[in-house]
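Our preliminary data section would be incomplete without showing what the modeling component actually yields. Below, a chain of 257 amino acids is followed by its predicted structure, encoded as tokens that our downstream tools consume directly.
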Amino acid sequence: MPEQTFASELKKNVKNCTFKVIANPLKQWAVKLGREIEDLLGADRLVPGNEDVCILIGGDGTIFHNKGSVHGAIFAIGGKQSQVCQANQENWGEMLALVMKGFKIDERVALNVKVNERDEGWAINDAVVHSRRHNFLKLALAVGNSNYSFGGDGVIVATPTGATGYAYSAGGYIIGKVPGLMEVVPICPYMRALRPMLVPALSRVKIASEEGNADLIIDGQTIIELGSSDVVSVNGERRVKFVELPSKNKKITAVRL
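Predicted structure:
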């Protein structure tokens, strides 16, 4: 059983690694597993607010929803469909046992998001400007010193973490672990007027909708209504820490299929 693998390694471990456990309260299995892991760790290893590792249980959305409460490196347990979580309900014990043996920090690109230079939050996966009423948008897009105008449904700015999600479905790249990149993906641009772009993470991306009628969606969690005078600004200067576990695939690549 997964808890036996973890418990066995926990007994052997002499490192004073501290933890915080956050479970999605809307998922019964996550709440149950959270309590189980807390019992296995014991009170001495639970140091919320000053944890080395934050264990998030529930799925990718649980990570995005609780990212503001995380202080340590993220280790997440989700379902088999999760793209960001390092473990699932079947192998969490084995994966956590590896954490107890020692782990590296995977420092990933994250996005700072502003509207009219006002901070609106940050994203692990993506920031999306999308048509609010399913209408055609006239969009102005600036990527660094390059400017574009096109019609379409919106624009996705995605991190390498988020590149396997909405951005990939919209025709973007799988970035993998190429360091220091993010991607800009137009959503259904008219006549394919603009292709997805890989850009340095330090680039500043600005997006505006000529008529308004658009929403800004941050990590699928926060929705902000945009008007015609609003300008969304995104850059990848922020970093977020994940627990890095051994992987059979060491290849660093960026591909578009």
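The domain at 2-103 is CATH 3.40.50.10330 (Rossmann fold). The first helix runs from residue 2 to 12. Preliminary results of this kind motivate Aim 1 of the renewal.
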